[in-house]
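WARN no homologs supplied; continuing
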Amino acid sequence: MKKTLLVLLVVLISSSLAMASHGHVSPPKHPDKDAIYVNLAGIIKNTHGEPVGEAEVKVFLGDKMMDELETAENGKFLSRFFISKEEQKSLHIKLEISKASYKTEILKLNPKNLAMKDKNLYFSGDIILKRVLGPAFWISTAIFFLVYVIIGFELLHRTIAAMIGAATMLILSYTIGTFNPEYHILSYEAAIASIDMNVIFLLMGMMIIIGVLKHTGIFQWCAYKSYSLARGNFFLLSIILMFFTAFTSAFLDNVTTMLLLTGVAIEICVALNINPLYLLIPLVLASNIGGTATLIGDPPNILIGSYAGLSFVKFVEALAPICLVCMVVLVVYTKFIWGKEFAKAKIENVDEFILKLKEKYKITDAKLLSYGGGVLAFVIFLFLTESIWHMEVSVAALFGAAVLVTIAIIMDKIDLIELIEKDIEWPTLMFFIFLFMLVGAVESTGLLDLIADWILKLSKGNFVAACTFILWVAAIMSAFVDNIPFTATMLPIVGYLSNVIPDAHNTLWWALALGACFGGNGTIIGASANVVTIGIAESKGYRTTFMEFMKVAFPYMIITIAISEAWLLIVRP
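OK structure emitted
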């Protein structure tokens, strides 16, 4: 046993030493007194000015390799070695920088490029690597678009599709890419670094908070109060419910909001002898509009806010006003499309029906609701004051979730295992993780740079053209494909365009947010809330086809995108 442990210890020490020395050529231990140190430092960047991590840097003195290293994630490298008095006579240093999907760059240095101070030679500068559309580019691009097709046509669950795509890119990088670096797409370290944990933890925290709150019956009670306020006037009821849905979706997940409201809405419609779809479609449109107003309302906004460093307050200031305008337009649009049907909705005894709803949809746990409401209010307060604390929104969400779960467990109101299994949407979180890896891969191999350059060329660097292009492409694409992977793909592209187009500021980010979120209203499959709501209605016997939904929803989507463009170009938030 002792011998086995000794062997394991030796292996571990040897492995550690090997890892510590990996990628470097160790200089002699004892330089002579006339030796001088050479210090080479810099940042490797691509043509967009973005740092290039994991680039291999080889340093030569004549034909002799002096050092070999990899750039850090921020593109920085530092090489330090000494050269003897004899080697100083012919001081020709060469840097050879290479990485898959990039053209190998050779930088030659002579005494004129080096600064001398206290027996030390220094060089510091940025080095630009140009893209090459090699095997890694074509393979990663093919896998990426194949995953898109699988998700778009629902051939597999989107989480499985994203996982297969990410895993395939990694396995190719570590098998074929080991023998031929041109096939290396993404390293494991780069894949992990590409995951935005701020997004993952924010979603997880809000899922837990909502999971506890839904046990209180608050959402169904609000639906009952809406009917009570409307006093049987169906059009007024639709207005109250639309604004309630929009407001709730701005702070909570709109899928959960629709899950909890749909059942009550169907019951009210059946009692009034009206097709529930006439109310559910306006509600789901309002849900997607309301979710656009804040950082946490819709997943595309969470992605954009985390990537671009935009705060909760900035989202509200830039997007809430246009969302309010679009909600007013929705009221008018609803009256125009379904007004005649709403007028037919009648119930003989309004007071009796209100009492029935009051009995069925009551607050089931007022004490837990008071604690939950207080915690949610505090979390939103932290969101609104983010600029003071300089704290990621995910920290506030996780803290709120931890406090609320602790309170609920102490009160014996929830089953922790049930909460973890049912209320945290693990497939959604996993989808985000693998999606980040996929996007990180095509960003590494150059696809996103290519698209960004194409948009820049197409718009000729003009702000109006770029804003229009991003807004309308995002809207049309999001109507037919999942807006989450589309938004994740567009993040580096919009980030680059925001930097190179004069006076763009944050407006291009708002164009992406409005296009991706409002575009989800275009078809049944445009947003998750649409799919969930129409699915519940169908299970109750109220079915609508893809084209029937699109016939009434797509024109409204076009109207809101047109209003958004006018808003972006005139106000430039």
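The chain has 24 helices and eight strands.
OK
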